[in-house]
């Protein structure tokens, strides 16, 4: 698939003049400092090839994309029992809405809105000290990406702790409804650290390749989840992966994906490839502006949309 | 693909003891009278083959599935301008919620909730008398299914008119916000008639085949929409096609689809096949109970899920 | 109480330079044509005296103030059974919110928001043709004000019918929940006519005097409602009489009252007096701007606030 | 007014067989232990007389009634500027709803719902250590009631701290919107202690007498607030004092009042008397069941309703 590198190069050339577009997230102080003039894109195919352009080797804060890995761990621990604690429906409202939570008595709508991810984290913690839960996640992601260079950025984690009042509100709210087993501070401690995972496009694309490859990691050669579970995680990403912009992403890109406010987007072409794009400037629904454009171009030129070529 | 008939036969044999499960919709008097002990399933492949089991030749009220055809007509008329009148995001609430509409100032969340479909109908009417708009839809569906036997059940349409207070509320509400061009009575007259389309599984699977076949109807041999538009309609079905059960359907079945309270579900395996299933008993989110089960079995056994095999 | 005329004169003199402030309601075409440079105020005391200033003899559209008289009729018909159809709590949202109605399954929060008043009208219609129900209200108001000059402005009623989509939405919505006995068109026909009652400040103050006088009309000399019912209607006016500005009116004026978008406000000083003020320009919560100011001045200078002198 | 004692005795005799009705609040562990078979009622008149029946000398946890005293302190500190931080409209929803807060961007609807009271507490803290703010409140209430026996129940305060997840959610939520100046833990520390004020009916009726007496405390002989501010606090109690039961209380009792989940209700007959009733069993909207009944009887028999005699 030599064409693939050509496609990536073409996308990069076209988007180069636009690098810097969008608005860097400013509600987490340490993210606000990131240089917006960066763009990286990596595609890893199920046969193990890697294609990259731009700043694909620069680490960035993956933020909410970490929810995909945490969800995978939680499903591994409790299986379909997880759905007693969190729903599977798109939320129809902003990523940190508390209204939804009140209307549904403390059960978050899906595992990718903040409240849902906090509940998922609570499940992963089970039987662990907070520090161990973070360690488990870090080991898991390093294993998946086959790269011990993946780290957690302590300053970003701390930065979130200090400004994360809304997440404290969500967590306390779920606690009030009995949908949080561990102390709020423990759960959020882990949550803020998971969001502070620092990865490059290359590491991220490789780490998620198992979702494109029937649940197995062709790089590491081992099964991570069953084919059925891989499909289901992909389904959740497609319907719920971009907050209130999920419908729009499906409409324009047509791939299961998960975005983060650090400007990264991870996406999957089932049976074909996984990919990670990063550009810090966000569009008005909070997803990487150029990242979404790049994936729309990539899906159109490859015919990878799950909705038809 | 002789296996396909065997798969359908297997599903039918397994589900036969469960036929009659679920609860027939009772809020439309004429639908409440339907015999629940029926089940039909048809698959049409992009190479023009047709596979059926059970009551696949019995006409039923397709209800909300008609929204897919009306959306296709509306996009043909005004193109992407349509999205000024209606959104593209999953709704996160019941199919006939008026709350959403108030919060978003009369712009329905997507074209598949009732309010959105009413706005779409208003677009299709444009420049027509109501009777002509219904005629246009009927001709379109007959053309797509290559079958002049498709009819509109006048009694069902009338039955809805008399009990459709909530739809009258939705339409008047949009009118109050200036998001309805024609008189409420005209728009709902067309809307109730479109929902009363009476089709068999075979007719329905054939009518929607263009969505599996890059926008062209391999049976009739002509382009209906562009490949891009076909993908986009599929994306809307996947994220919004089953009201507040859309996430669940994506999770379990993994195919773009649209359900109706008459107990029908239409679904698409892009590039491969279109399919229609019908069984009147509904599950608690208002979709055909056995229909959803049958499609889950079908997707699992064929590996057609868009999220991986 | 010779001072009372002096107080009214003083208020009029002070407010004269401000007459014309606020914004005339424009959503009902016929109201939008009213000259904003008008101001009238009448106080009737329980000993039968009448004090007036300004345009107190000019008829205006009383709009929502009519809900007080309709509520009185409905309580006369079904007594406390009325509260099965409508609540008694302040609404915490705009006067025509449909959200509330969905959350509470078709039971309006109180009889003074539009939905509640529509339900009250449905109760009054019971056993009547629409025309008779309007006739009953007109006779009642003429009797209370001891003045056959009270009329209904047909053009205003018709004007509302044509633009009242939101009220049609509310009514159909309640109908969907089974909380409307008569056909939507009948109920709204009566509702739009009641809102089109045309009265002067003098007629209005006299018509509501029974609420200040233990339920009896000292002018006509007869009991209208029991003392207990008069208190209760006053309580409803105080907590719910000004839509989402009810708390503000209680805070600043301290009298039970009911406002209308025609710029009128009716208020009661229990045991002392009833009063009506009119000035067409509205403030941002939809109540007469100068009317509210005038009543605040009046309550302050007379010590009539129910919350202390 | 020798009759007053007779009226109280009569009410007590009639209600005696019903003592124990309702359900003791159980969400705060230490309140759940209170013996439900208690009932006390005290009336203090503006001429300094005190009338009591039943357990009027037994201290109970005044809970939300403390919000009236805290509001008085806050208005004393920042005056009408307070209304930039909190609204003055009835809430139309449960006392601890977070939905409202999100819809109105962190500005609570009124000072008597929990979020509003937390904002008020934040204002009172200003320039204080938490401990000092509690001390100030305690001194204020002791001064008002002319009784140094008023205490704060540390166990109740601690009990709330441990289960007050919803209040932590509300406070963090306001903090996220910038509507909380001090650290969440400090504000809630004070808040939980103010709710743990332990007072008898006699102390409470005396402490609030200034609200019936044009802002002055006839017992202590000094002005507490201006007559205008007393009226305004009374107005807030009438429209917002009983959460989602405020309209009902106005309808049945007709007096400004504030209830607490400890089973106490404080009420004011402006110009005449203040009163406190206590009975631990709550009705379904969370107010003292017998307390509300007793006040309805008292208002009916004395003619003290602000809405007419």
Automatic annotation (TrEMBL), chains A, B, C, D:
Binding partners and assembly: Homotetramer.
Protein name: Glutaminase
Keywords, comma-separated and alphabetical: Acetylation, Hydrolase
UniProt cross-references to Pfam families, sorted A to Z: Glutaminase
Protein EC: 3.5.1.2
Keyword Hydrolase: yes
Stored NCBIfam families: Gln_ase, PRK00971.1-1, PRK00971.1-2
Binding positions (substrate): 64, 114, 160, 167, 191, 243, 261
Catalytic activity reported: L-glutamine + H2O = L-glutamate + NH4(+)
Superkingdom: Bacteria
Entry similarity comment: Belongs to the glutaminase family.
Gene: glsA
Biological process according to GO: glutamate biosynthetic process; L-glutamine catabolic process
GO molecular function, one term: glutaminase activity
Protein species of origin: Rhizobium tibeticum
InterPro entries per UniProt: Beta-lactam/transpept-like, Glutaminase
């Amino acid at each position: 698939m030599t064409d693939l590198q050509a496609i990536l190069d073409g996308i990069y050339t076209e988007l180069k003049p636009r690098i810097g577009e969008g608005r860097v997230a400013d509600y987490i102080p340490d993210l606000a400092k990131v240089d917006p003039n960066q763009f990286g894109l990596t595609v890893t195919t199920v046969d193990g090839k890697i294609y990259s352009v731009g700043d694909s080797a620069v680490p960035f804060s993956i933020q909410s994309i970490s929810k995909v890995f945490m969800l995978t761990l939680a499903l591994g621990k409790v299986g379909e029992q997880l759905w007693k604690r969190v729903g599977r429906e798109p939320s129809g409202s902003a990523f940190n809405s508390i209204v939804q939570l009140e209307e549904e008595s403390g059960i978050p709508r899906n595992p990718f809105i903040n409240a849902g991810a906090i509940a998922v984290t609570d499940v992963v913690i089970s039987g662990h000290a907070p520090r161990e839960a973070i360690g488990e996640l870090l080991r898991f992601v390093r294993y998946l990406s086959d790269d011990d260079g993946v780290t957690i950025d302590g300053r970003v984690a701390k930065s979130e702790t200090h400004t994360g009042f809304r997440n404290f509100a969500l967590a306390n709210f779920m606690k009030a409804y009995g949908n949080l087993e561990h102390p709020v501070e423990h759960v959020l401690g882990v949550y803020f650290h998971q969001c502070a995972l620092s990865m490059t496009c290359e590491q991220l694309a490789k780490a998620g390749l198992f979702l494109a490859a029937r649940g197995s990691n062709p790089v590491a050669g081992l099964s991570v989840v069953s084919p059925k579970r891989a499909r289901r995680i992909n389904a959740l990403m497609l319907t719920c992966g971009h907050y209130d912009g999920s419908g729009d992403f499906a409409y324009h890109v047509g791939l299961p994906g998960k975005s983060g406010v650090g400007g990264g987007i991870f996406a999957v072409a089932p049976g074909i490839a996984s990919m990670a794009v990063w550009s810090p400037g966000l569009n008005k629904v909070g997803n990487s502006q150029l990242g979404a454009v790049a994936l729309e171009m990539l899906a159109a030129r490859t015919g990878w949309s799950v909705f038809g070529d």
